Amino acid sequence: MFTGYSTLTVALALPADGKVIACDIDEEYTAIARSFWQQAGVADKIELHLAPALETLDKLINQGQANTFDFAFIDADKSNYNNYYERALELVRPGGLIAIDNVLWGGKVADRNIQDNRTKNIREFNQKLHQDTRVTISLVPIGDGLTLALKTGIA
Ligand SMILES: C[S@@+](CC[C@H](N)C(=O)[O-])C[C@H]1O[C@@H](n2cnc3c(N)ncnc32)[C@H](O)[C@@H]1O
Description:
The chain is 38% helix and 25% strand. By secondary structure, the protein is of the alpha/beta class.
């Protein structure tokens, strides 16, 4: 969530009884986020979890919240993208949407000469999603590349 911009955007779009679970590990950034959520009048829609996101996502799954979320947005540490994606796929309902940011990684994913770990992670992740029959995807070439993955399985 960093300073809370995307969380704020989602919270503003939600109805009064909508709820956002926001994950980060950095107390300083999240304090900035909280103050803007207050100013925008949406703080009561946002539940902040200050912990490694994998712990939070696993907790939600263990609490029985699989298949209950409409939307997930992944934009944290790139080395965990696959782990976040697998958890998000469990948590969103069939027909729910997962958005994943930075999938073009400044264009580096398309340059085979670039083989650093972060670029390789995102490249492999993109390839995996392309073949993943659990979702229907669209890689939208805006900003740094945003993949939209719709969880299939609506009856
Ligand atoms: C690119 S920023 C997110 C920007 C955010 N989407 C926004 O709208 O401003 C990435 C954030 O991931 C957080 N982060 C890094 N590793 C994390 C982890 N293991 N668990 C949760 N958050 C993490 C960082 O502290 C940072 O605030």
